[in-house]
C-alpha cells in the first residue's frame, strides 16, 4: 500500500493505493468517486477514459497513477464549473450525445486538442474516440466551430 496525493480538478486528493502501477482510471472512479470518466476497452483504443494531465490528453486506463503525482489532472467533472467550456456549449447546441457513455471522453479529447491550439476540422480528424451509438456526424458538426 502507498499513500499519494493527486491534484484532481484543482483539489488535492490524498489516496492510498495498493499498487503504484494501478491505472489512474481505477483511482479516479473507485477511490476518488469521479465516475464521469468511463472504462471502455482498457487498451487505449476507445478513448472513453480520456482525461487531461497538465492540459494534455491521456488515456487514464493505461496511465500509471504514480505518474500523475505532481501534475494537474482534470476530468469531465472539472472541465468547467457550469458547462461553459466552448466544447460543452457546442455539444449542447448540436445535441451530440445519445446514450452518453463515450461523451465525457469525447469532450476531454476535444478540450485537449483545443489546449494544443487546434481548431475545427483538425480537431475532428484527431478525435478517434469510438461511439457505439454513432454520434460521429454530430461530433463533427460540434467541433466545426471550435
Ligand atoms: S478505456 Fe481507455 S482507451 Fe478505452
Ligand atoms: S453516445 Fe452512446 S456510445 Fe457514444
Short description:
By secondary structure, the protein is of the alpha+beta class. The protein has helices at 24-31, 86-94, 103-115, 120-126, 136-144; strands spanning 2-8, 11-17, 50-53, 56-59, 72-74.
Give the key terms.
globular, single chain, five-stranded mixed beta sheet, DNA polymerase, domain 1, 2 domains, 146 residues, Ubiquitin-like (UB roll), binds FE2/S2 (inorganic) cluster, alpha+beta, 5 helices
Task: Describe the protein.
This protein has 146 residues and is an alpha+beta fold. It has two domains: 2-78, Ubiquitin-like (UB roll); 86-144, DNA polymerase, domain 1. It has five helices and five strands. The protein has helices at 24-31, 86-94, 103-115, 120-126, 136-144; strands at 2-8, 11-17, 50-53, 56-59, 72-74. The protein has a five-stranded mixed sheet, with helices on both faces. Strand 1 (2-8) and strand 2 form a beta hairpin. Helix 2 (86-94) packs across helix 5 (136-144) and helix 4 (120-126) runs antiparallel to helix 5. It is globular and about 45 Å long. The model has no long low-confidence stretch (mean pLDDT 97). One FE2/S2 (inorganic) cluster (FES) binds next to loops.
Determine and state the CATH class of the largest domain.
Alpha Beta
Let me know the number of strands: 5
- For CATH, the homologous superfamily of the largest domain is named as Beta-grasp domain
Strand order of the largest sheet: 2-1-5-3-4
Number of domains: 2
- CATH architecture assignment name of the largest domain: Roll
| Bound ions, cofactors and other small molecules, one mention each | FE2/S2 (inorganic) cluster
Shape: globular
Largest sheet: 5 strands, mixed
Total of DSSP H or I helical runs spanning 4+ residues: 5
The N- to C-terminal Cα distance equals 44 Å
Task: Note poorly predicted spans.
Answer: none
- CATH topology tier name of the largest domain: Ubiquitin-like (UB roll)
Helical percent range? 25-40%
**Structural class per helix/strand content?**
alpha+beta
Report mean pLDDT, rounded to a whole number.
Answer: 97
Radius of gyration: 15 Å
H/E series, N to C?
Answer: EEHEEEHHHH
Percent strand: 15-25%
